[in-house]
Amino acid sequence: MAWNSRVDHVAPFRVMHLLEMAQAREAAGFDVIHLEVGEPDFATPAPIIAAGQKALTNGHTRYTPAAGLPALREAIAGHYAEHFNATVDPARILVTPGASGALLLASQLLVETGSRVLMADPNYPCNRHFMALAGAEIDAVSVGRESGWQLDAAMVAQHWREETSLAMLASPSNPTGHTLSAQQLAAVLDAVAEREGEVIVDEIYQGLNYDDAPLSATSLSTNAFVVNSFSKYFGMTGWRLGWLVAPEHAVEPLTRLAQNMFLAAPTPSQHAALAAFTPECRAILEQRRETLKERRQVLLEGLASLGLAPDLPPQGAFYLWLDISRYSRDSQSFCERLLLEENVAITPGIDFAVRGGEHHVRIAFTNEVARLEEAVARIARFVSRL
Ligand SMILES: Cc1ncc(COP(=O)(O)O)c(C=O)c1O
Fold this sequence. Notes:
This protein is an alpha/beta fold and 386 residues long.
C-alpha cells in the first residue's frame, strides 16, 4: 500500500494489549487491580461539570477562535500569575485539544526532515512519534539517578549536534514522576539557547507535586514552548483540553497550523475549564493531590519491602518507575504473568524506554489505598515464585 512510511515508526502502546487482557479477565469474573492507566481515577470536579452542562444548555456548541476562548486564555494567564509568579501574555497562549494537540502543533512548527531532537530516555512515547512523523530523528539520551532521571545541561552539551534543533523536557515526567529543579531547568534552557535551539517543556503533570512547590518554565523564559493540559491535575482527560504557551513570534504560525489541523479545541470543554481556576475547584484539586501523596507513600513502603522501590522517590505525577532486573529482564512477560497469575495490571517499561525498558515497569497509583495494599501483597506473592 502506498502510505506514509513515517507511520511505520509509530509503535503501538504495548499496554493496550495488557488492558485488553485485563478487561477480558474482568469480564470472566476476576478481580483485577488496575495500575496501568495514566489517568486519574477521580471524576472531573463538580464545578467543572456544572460549567460544562451550563455551556451545553446555553448553546455554546459552535467553534471558538482557533487559539481558544479569550476568557480561557486570560484565566490561564491568571493561573501563571497567581501560582508561578509568571507574567504570561494571554496572546501567547493557544488552547488545544489536550496536551496532545499542543505537542502536535509544536512538532509541526519546530522540526522538519533532517532535524534532530534530544529527549530523555525513558520518555512519554508519543513524543518520539510526533517528532518522527514530522520527519525528525530522535536522540534519546539514557538518564538515571545521577541527573534525577532528567535530561540535564551536560547531556545537552554532550549530545547536541549540528542538525539538532530541539530539546524536549517533561517535569514531572512520565514515566518516572521525577521533576527538574529550577536550577536544572534554567541550566538546560541556557544550554539550548547558547546553541540557538528550541525547547519544549511538557508540564502536563504540573500541580501533582508532592515534595516541592510546582515550577513552570514560563517563569524562567519567554522563549520556551510550554505544554500543559487540563487532563491530569484538573481531572479532565476525556474533555480533550490543553494549552501551549509559545514565544510571541511563534503565535501567528501556530495559529495558522491550529486553524488547519483542528480549527479549535472543543467549545463546551473550554467553557467548563473556566471553572477549573476557581477557589472552590482548587480546594477539591488540592485535596486530591494529598490523596495521591498518601498513595505514593503506601506504594513506596510496600514495594521497598520487596526490594522494588525506585532508587529515587518520584516527586510528582502519579507513577513509579521500577527496576525489576532482580526478578526479570522481560518486562512484557513479567506484566502479562502478573496479570494472569495475580490479576494486577501494570505497564511494561518497553512502552517508554528505548534502552532499559525490558527491565523496568511503570506503576500508576491511580487506585485507592486499600487496592494498592492488596496489589503489593499480590506482587509479593508473584515475585516470591520467580
Ligand atoms: C507526558 C505527557 N504529555 C502529554 C500527554 C497527553 O495528554 P493529553 O492529550 O490528555 O493532555 C500525556 C498523557 O498521558 C503525557 O503523559
